[in-house]
Amino acid sequence: MTLQQLEYFKVLATIRHYTNAARILHISQPSLSYAITALEEELGTILFDKRHKSITLTPAGKIFYSHVTKVLAMLEEGVAETRATGKAYRELVRIGSIYSMAFSLLPVIIEGYNRETGRDRVKFSFVQNVNDRLLEDLYLRRIDLAILSEPREDLEYLQIHQQELYVLVNSGHPLAENDRVKISQIKNEPLILTTGESGLRRFIDRAFLEAGTSSKILFESPECNAIVSHVALNQGVGIIPDIPGINYEGVKKLSIQGPGLKRPIYLAWLPGKGLTGAMEEFIDYLKRNPQMG
After folding, report:
1. In angstroms, rounded to a whole number, what is the distance separating the alpha carbons of residues 41 and 6?
2. What are the CA-CA distances from residue 1 to residues 9, 58, 83, 178 (Å)?
C-alpha cells in the first residue's frame, strides 16, 4: 500500500466518477482503475460499488475512507509543522576572534556573508580573546572557527586579512608633527604594549628584532583602549591596530614608514570531517572574498 494509492482512493471516493477523478489526478483512467484494484486486492475487500453510473462506497469502503482522510490530514499537518520547524531552525556557528578583529573585520565579514548568501538559517555566536586562548577554545571545541594571527600547523587555516599597525603618540609629542615614523625613531621611547600572551605583542617584538633594535617596555596592558588612554596622558608611546570605536582624542596616530607593520590574520578550524554545512559555506565565502584590506 502506497501513499499514492491512498490519495487516489480519497479523490475517487470524493468525486465518485472514474473519468473525472483521473482528470483531477492528471492520470489516465486505466491507471486509476489499476491502482484501486491493487488496493482492494491488498485489503481483501471491495471498496467501491460499480453497479451504477455513479460509483458508491461499500460499507468497507466507508470505514476505510474515514481512516484515510484522517491519516492524510495528519500527514499534511505533520509536513507543514516540519517545514515550519525547519525554517525556524538556524544552524549555530560559534566564532572566536582576537579583540581587534572583533570590532573591525568580523562585522564586515558577517554583513557580506549574509548579503551574498541571502540566508537566515545560520545563527552566529561570538567570543573575544587573545590568540592563545582562542586556540585552546578551538581544540576543546568551545568554538567552531577562530579569527587569529598565529594558527598552528596542525590546524586548517587560510589568510583572510592583513592588519596594519600604527604608532600612537600624545598630540604634544615631538613625533606628532609627522604622519609617518620609522621603527628606529621610537626605539628609545617608553612603550606601552599589549601583554606577552597576545599574538599582537609577539608580532611587534619580532618587528623590532627584524629592524635590528629592541623595545623599551614601560608597561603592558591587555586592552588597546587602555593603551590609548595612557598615551593620551603622555605616559608613553603605543603600537596598536586601528580599532573602530576607540576615542583617539589627544592622540596622534602615525603610519609606520617602510614596509610597515602589517600582520596576517587567519581563519582557523580543526581538521577532519567535523564541519557542518554552515561552517563549510562560511569558509568557502571567505575563500572567495578575502578581506585583505
Report:
1. 14
2. 11, 19, 25, 85
Residues 17 and 45 in one domain: yes
Whole domain around residue 79: which residue ranges? 3-87
pTM of the model: 0.66
Q: What is the pLDDT of residue 290?
A: 84
In total, how many domains does the chain have?
A: 3
Residue 186 and residue 255: Cα distance in Å, rounded? 13
Q: How many CA atoms lie within 13 A of 46 on its CB side?
A: 8
**Domain of 13: which CATH number?**
1.10.10.10
Residue 198 belongs to what H/E stretch? Answer: none
Beta bridge partners of 192: 219, 238
Task: Say if residue 148 is exposed, middle or buried (CB neighbours under 10 Å; 0-12, 13-18, 19+).
Answer: buried
Say if CB 143 and CB 270 are below 8 A apart.
no
Instruction: Name which of 109, 250, 249, 111 is nearest 173 in CA terms.
Output: 250
Q: 57-111 pLDDT, tens per residue? A: 999 999 999 999 999 999 988 887 776 666 555 689 999 999 889 888 999 999 9
pLDDT tens digits, one per residue of 191-206: 999 988 788 899 999 8
Q: Does the residue 293 lie in any domain?
A: no
Predicted confidence at residue 252, as pLDDT, reads 95
**Angle CA 110–150–156, to nearest 5:** 70
Cell of 35: 491502482
Q: Is residue 162 exposed (0-12), middle (13-18) or buried (19+ Cβ within 10 Å)?
A: middle
Look-up of cell digits 609629542 = 173
- The three-state secondary structure class of 168 is strand
Residues 188 and 251 in one domain: yes
Question: Among residues 178, 174, 208, 211, which one has the least CA distance to residue 191?
Answer: 208
